[in-house]
Specification:
The complex is a heterodimer of chains A (303) and B (457).
Chain A: H1 2-42, H2 59-67, H3 69-99, H4 107-115, H5 122-132, H6 139-146, H7 161-169, H8 174-185, H9 189-197, H10 202-229, H11 234-240, H12 251-261, H13 265-293
Helix pairs in contact in A: 1-13, 3-7, 3-8, 3-10, 3-12, 5-11, 8-10, 10-13, 12-13
Chain B: H1 8-31, H2 34-48, E1 61-66, H3 71-87, E2 91-95, H4 104-115, E3 122-125, H5 130-135, H6 143-148, H7 150-153, H8 160-165, E4 167-168, E5 171-172, E6 175-181, E7 183-187, H9 188-193, H10 205-215, E8 217-219, E9 222-228, H11 233-239, H12 257-272, H13 279-284, H14 287-292, E10 296-301, H15 306-309, E11 317-320, E12 332-341, H16 348-359, H17 361-368, H18 384-387, H19 398-408, E13 412-414, H20 421-437, H21 442-456
Parallel strand pairs in B: 1-2, 1-3, 9-10, 12-13
Antiparallel strand pairs in B: 3-12, 4-5, 6-12, 7-10, 7-11, 8-9
Classes of the chains: A mainly alpha (303), B alpha/beta (457).
C-alpha cells in the first residue's frame, strides 16, 4: 500500500518536472534543435550558403584540430579570459553583495547603482570603455598620470588588450551581485545567532556559515560564468576586432569570421561543435567537483 | 503493470524524431537548391535575348534595390527613384536600404537574403566581397544586357578603370554607380602655419615624410598633432612597382623587394619618425576624427570623405593627388560602388533597367550633385555642377579635380576580385598590426603575409 502511494507521488512529481521543463523543451525543439542538428551535418561539408554543399568527410575537423593555428590561438585567448575573469567576477560580486547585505542608509540606492551597468547594452558599454581605455586622455591613464605613472596603450597594445577586456568584464558584476544578495538573505539567521552565542567571531561565522550556505549559489554562478565567458563576442568585435595581431581573437569571433566573413559554414559548424564540447567538458568538471565543495541545506554527507 | 502515460523513453524518442524532422526540413533548401536552378534557366533565357521580352501590356512589376543606407544616403537616392518612377511607369522601383550603414552587418544581411532566396533584385556590394560573391555565382552577368540596351547604358561613358573593376574573369558583373580613387586630404591652415607648400602632383613619399615631421607636435610625452595618416598598403605597394598576387591568381607576390621597400616606408612613418599615429593612438581617436578636429596635417581618403569634411568650420582644407613613390610612380586605389543584378531575380530586364538608371548620367547627377561621391562617368566630371562644387571651407576646386584627373591619367586601379579576398585581406591586416607597432620588421611582415596567403591560394 505504502509502495503504491510512493509510486503515485513519484509519477506526479515526474509529470510536474516535465511540465516545468516544457517551455524550455518547446523552445529548444522549435529554435535550437534543428539548427544544431543541421550544423552537425554541415560540419562534414564545404557549404558556403549559396552553392550546393559537398561532402568533405572529416576534412574540416582535421583542419581545425591540426592545421589551423588560429583555432588554438582563439581557444587560448578565450580560456585565459574565462579563467581570470570568472573568479574575479565571483569574488567582486560576492564582496559587493556582502557590503550591500548590511543595514546602511541609502541601501536601495547603492543596490540600484551597482546593478545598473548590468542592464546596459553591450555595444554602448563597449564604446564607453573604448574611452575609458584611451591611451592619452582616457580615464584610467589620466588617473595613473596623476600619480606619475605612464599608462599602457591598452586596446592598441597586444600585451594589454586582453587584460583590458578582462577588467571591463567586471563592469557586469551587478547581475551576479543580485543573485548573491538573494542567497545571502536566504541564510537562516538562527545559524548566526547560535554561532554568536557560542562566541564565534565575524570571520568564523563568515567561513563556517556564510560560505558553506552560499556554495550552491557560487556553484551556479561558476557554471553560468564559465559558459558566458567562453562565448564572449561583442566586446572583441567592437573594441579590438580580435587585434592587435590576434591578441584578443576570441573563439566566437573567429567562428563568426569563418561563417560571415569567409562564408565557410561547414568549417564554422565544426568550430561551433568544438566550443560546445569544450564548454561541456568544463561544465562537467565543475559539476563533478561540486560534491567536494557545494553544500545543500538538509544534506547529510556520506549517505 | 503497463503504463499508458508517456514514458521518459517514449518522450525522448519523440523529441529526437522531432529534432531530426526539423533538421531535415531546415536542410532541405540548402542541399537541393531547385529554385536557383529554375531561376538560372530563366536568367539564361533572358541573357540570350533580353530584347525579346514580350512588349504586350503586363502587370506593373516591382524591383528592389538595396544599399547599406543612412539618413544621407536615403535622402540622396530619393530623387533618383522619383525620376525612375516617371521614366518607367510600368516598373515599381523600390529603394530598400538595409539600415545597417556601411558595416559588416550589411554583408550578413545580404548573404542571409541571398541564401533565403529573397534577395533584392539589384544591390550594392561592399569592398572585400565582390570577388567572394562573384565566385558564389550570385551575380547576373550583364554583358548581354549592355548590348541589348545601349541607349540606357551608355557604356562608353564609364571610366575604363571603373569598368575593369566590375569584371570578374572577363564578365561584367556590375555597373559602377560611383567610385573614386584615393587622394590626400590636407589641413591648409596647418600647412600655412608651418610655411610648407601644399602637396601637389610632384610630391613623393620623402617629401611627405619631411612635411609630416614638421607638422607633428608634442606636449611632453604626448603627441598632440600628427603630420600624416597611415598610407593604405595596397596603393603604396602598387606605386612602388609591387603586386599582391600573380596574374594567374596562384602565387602571392608580397615578398618582393618593391613591397618590402613600400612597407618599410609605411612603418618608418609610425615607428621611426613617429609622424603618423600608431595603433595605440588610433585606439583613442580615428584619423578622420583627428583630421576634423585639426589634429592631423593630412590623411588619405576618397572624395566621399567630403560628406564628413564639408561640415568643418574651424579651418580650410583641400585635396591633393596621391603621392608618388620615390621611384616616381603613382597608383591609387579605386573604390567602386558595384551595382549588381541578383541572378535569382524574377524580373531581370526590369532589374537591369533599374541598375542602369541608378548608374546612368542622370541617375548619378541627381544623387551626387546633392552630396560628395565621385561619378563613374567621364561626362559627369566635366559638368559645371561637379567641377564647381564648393563647401564652406574647401580651399579650392581641387576637391573636384584631382580625383578624375588621376583616373584620366590611368593612375587608378581597383582591387582585383579574388574568391578568397575576405581571408586574404584579414591576413594582410593582421600582419600589418605587427608593422604598425614595430613588433616585426617590414621584411618579416612581407615574408609572413606571403606564406599565409600562399596557403590560401
Amino acid at each position: 500500500m505504502r509502495s503504491v502511494k510512493r509510486s503515485s507521488l513519484r509519477r506526479r512529481e515526474e509529470v510536474a518536472g516535465w511540465l516545468f521543463a516544457l517551455p524550455w523543451i518547446v523552445g529548444f525543439l522549435a529554435f535550437t534543435a534543428g539548427p544544431m542538428t543541421a550544423s552537425a551535418v554541415f560540419a562534414f561539408t564545404d557549404w558556403n550558403i549559396m552553392q550546393p554543399m559537398h561532402w568533405t568527410g572529416f576534412d574540416n575537423i582535421k583542419r581545425a584540430l591540426t592545421r589551423d593555428p588560429l583555432v588554438w590561438q582563439s581557444l587560448k585567448v578565450t580560456t585565459i579570459y574565462a579563467f581570470v575573469s570568472v573568479p574575479l567576477q565571483i569574488v567582486l560580486g560576492f564582496a559587493i553583495a556582502l557590503l550591500l547585505n548590511t543595514d546602511i542608509r541609502g541601501l536601495q540606492y547603492y543596490r540600484t547603482v551597482y546593478y545598473l551597468p548590468a542592464v546596459l547594452s553591450g555595444v554602448a558599454v563597449s564604446l564607453l570603455w573604448r574611452w575609458v581605455y584611451a591611451p592619452d586622455f582616457g580615464l584610467i591613464n589620466s588617473l595613473l598620470a596623476s600619480v606619475g605613472i605612464r599608462g599602457p596603450g591598452w586596446l592598441g597594445d597586444s600585451r594589454w588588450a586582453l587584460p583590458a577586456l578582462i577588467g571591463m568584464s567586471l563592469w557586469h558584476v551587478g547581475g551576479p551581485m543580485v543573485v548573491y544578495l538573494a542567497g545571502l538573505q536566504g541564510v537562516p539567521t538562527d545559524l548566526y545567532e547560535a554561532a554568536e552565542v557560542d562566541g564565534a567571531s565575524w570571520g568564523m561565522r563568515f567561513w563556517h556559515i556564510t560560505i558553506p550556505m552560499m556554495t550552491p549559489v557560487l556553484f551556479y554562478q561558476l557554471v553560468t560564468g564559465i559558459i558566458n565567458a567562453l562565448q564572449v563576442f561583442t566586446q572583441a568585435l567592437i573594441m579590438t576586432d580580435g587585434g592587435p595581431h590576434n591578441a584578443t581573437l576570441f573563439f566566437m569571433l573567429y567562428l563568426y569570421r569563418n561563417a560571415f566573413d569567409y562564408f565557410k559554414m561547414g568549417y564554422a559548424s565544426v568550430l561551433a561543435w568544438i566550443l560546445f564540447f569544450y564548454i561541456l567538458l568544463l561544465t562537467v568538471l565543475v559539476v563533478r567537483s561540486s560534491r567536494f565543495w557545494v553544500f545543500y541545506v538538509g544534506e547529510v554527507r556520506g549517505r | 503493470m503497463v503504463s499508458k502515460g508517456l514514458t521518459r523513453r517514449a518522450l525522448l524518442l519523440k523529441v529526437s524524431l522531432g529534432a531530426v524532422g526539423v533538421a531535415v526540413a531546415s536542410c532541405g533548401p540548402a542541399s537541393k537548391p531547385e529554385p536557383t536552378k529554375a531561376v538560372e534557366e530563366q536568367a539564361k533565357a533572358t541573357q540570350v535575348a533580353p530584347e525579346q521580352t514580350p512588349l504586350a501590356p503586363k502587370e506593373k512589376v516591382t524591383v528592389k534595390f538595396m544599399v547599406p543606407g543612412s539618413q544621407q544616403e536615403d535622402a540622396d537616392f530619393k530623387p533618383v527613384f522619383d525620376a525612375f518612377a516617371e521614366k518607367y511607369p510600368d516598373i515599381n522601383g523600390v529603394y530598400a536600404p538595409a539600415g545597417t550603414g556601411y558595416t559588416p552587418e550589411y554583408d550578413e544581411k545580404l548573404m542571409t537574403m541571398l541564401a533565403g532566396g529573397v534577395a533584392p533584385d539589384v544591390f550594392k556590394t561592399l569592398f572585400g566581397k565582390f570577388g567572394v560573391l562573384g565566385a558564389m555565382g550570385v551575380y547576373l552577368p550583364l554583358d548581354d544586357y549592355v548590348a541589348a540596351y545601349p541607349e540606357i547604358t551608355d557604356f562608353e561613358d564609364f571610366f575604363e578603370n571603373h569598368v575593369q573593376g566590375c569584371r570578374i574573369q572577363g564578365k561584367l558583373m556590375a555597373l559602377p554607380n560611383d567610385g573614386a580613387p584615393e587622394a590626400i586630404w590636407y589641413n591648409v591652415d596647418l600647412f600655412q602655419a608651418e610655411g610648407i607648400e601644399f602637396p601637389n602632383w610632384d610630391w613623393t613619399w620623402d617629401r611627405m615624410t619631411e612635411a609630416a615631421t614638421r607638422l607633428t607636435k608634442k606636449e611632453g610625452d604626448i603627441t598632440v598633432q600628427y603630420g600624416v595618416g597611415h598610407p593604405f598598403w595596397l596603393e603604396t605597394i602598387w606605386s612602388n612597382g609591387g603586386e599582391v598576387i600573380s596574374e594567374d591568381g596562384k602565387k602571392c607576390l608580397l615578398d618582393s623587394p618593391e613591397v618590402v621597400e613600400a612597407l618599410t616606408w609605411m612603418q618608418d612613418l609610425v615607428v621611426r619618425h613617429k609622424v603618423s599615429p600608431g595603433p595605440q593612438a588610433l585606439s583613442e581617436l580615428s584619423e578622420t576624427d583627428r583630421f576634423t578636429t585639426g589634429k592631423l596635417g593630412a590623411y588619405y581618403g576618397v572624395r566621399g570623405a567630403l560628406g564628413t569634411l564639408r561640415s568643418i568650420q574651424s579651418f580650410d582644407f583641400d585635396a591633393a593627388p596621391m603621392l608618388k613613390s620615390n621611384k616616381g610612380k603613382r597608383v591609387t586605389r579605386l573604390l567602386i560602388g558595384w551595382t549588381s543584378v541578383w541572378k535569382g531575380t524574377k524580373h531581370p530586364d526590369e532589374a537591369y533597367k533599374l541598375a542602369a538608371w541608378i548608374c546612368s548620367r542622370e541617375g548619378q547627377r541627381l544623387r551626387i550633385s546633392r552630396g560628395y561621391a565621385h561619378p563613374s562617368r567621364k561626362s559627369l566630371v566635366q559638368e559645371d555642377w561637379y567641377r564647381n562644387y564648393k563647401c564652406d571651407r574647401c580651399h579650392s576646386t581641387n576637391v573636384n579635380m584631382v580625383f578624375p584627373q588621376m583616373l584620366l591619367n590611368g593612375e587608378a586601379r581597383a582591387w582585383p576580385p579574388y574568391p578568397k579576398e575576405g581571408e586574404i585581406l584579414r591576413v594582410i591586416n593582421t600582419q600589418l598590426d605587427h608593422l604598425w607597432d614595430g613588433s616585426k620588421s617590414a621584411e618579416q611582415v612581407a615574408r609572413d603575409m606571403t606564406a599565409e596567403i600562399d596557403q590560401l591560394l
